[in-house]
Design goal:
Structural class: alpha+beta
Strand order of the largest sheet: 1-2-3-4-5
Helix content: 10-25%
Order of helices and strands: EHHEEEHEH
Oligomer: single chain
Distance between the termini: 31 Å
CATH architecture: 3-Layer(aba) Sandwich
Strand content: 15-25%
Number of domains: 1
Number of helices: 4
């Protein structure tokens, strides 16, 4: 958990309690503001959140969700970080860093091999050890109608 918001109303609480996730807020962001995965239906997003190995939310002092991240994993050695976002009004305050730190460094998967795909925030993810893959890493891209990661593969 992050520090209490009682002293600082601009601070957030970060929690991995799945019952706190505001699926309406997740859907609103992913369906209108995200540059990735906008081909998904609400039912798809709900299933992905429900089926995630772990979810982490960032919450304002009034309880509103202002950031989110999910991860899927085999639960033993590998994890994929997905759907990380911070609402625009909350960016630049370290919320993204708190989300990634809680998910990657403080969770049960801290010793896993982590993967993600992103068109931005490389510096943020780099501070947690993410780097370009080596030549042994292969990927089968999604079909073109689903490959919407900044015009490239997803």
């Amino acid at each position: 958990m992050s520090p209490s918001t009682e002293l600082d109303p601009t601070a957030v609480v970060v929690s991995d309690d799945p019952s706190r996730v505001d699926i309406d807020a997740v859907w609103q962001f992913l369906s209108t503001a995200a540059y990735w995965g906008r081909w998904r239906s609400r039912a798809d997003v709900e299933a992905q959140v429900r089926g995630a190995w772990r979810v982490v939310g960032a919450y304002a002092s009034d309880g509103a969700m202002v950031g989110f991240a999910r991860m899927f994993s085999d639960g033993v050695s590998g994890a994929y970080l997905a759907d990380v976002f911070v609402l625009p009004a909350w960016r630049g305050r370290g919320v993204g860093r708190q989300l990634v730190e809680e998910m990657v460094e403080n969770g049960p998967g801290r010793d896993f091999r982590w993967m993600l795909q992103t068109a931005d925030a490389h510096d943020l993810y780099g501070t947690f050890g993410f780097a370009a893959p080596n030549t042994s890493y292969l990927e089968r891209p999604a079909p073109p109608e689903r490959a919407r990661l900044g015009g490239g593969a997803q």
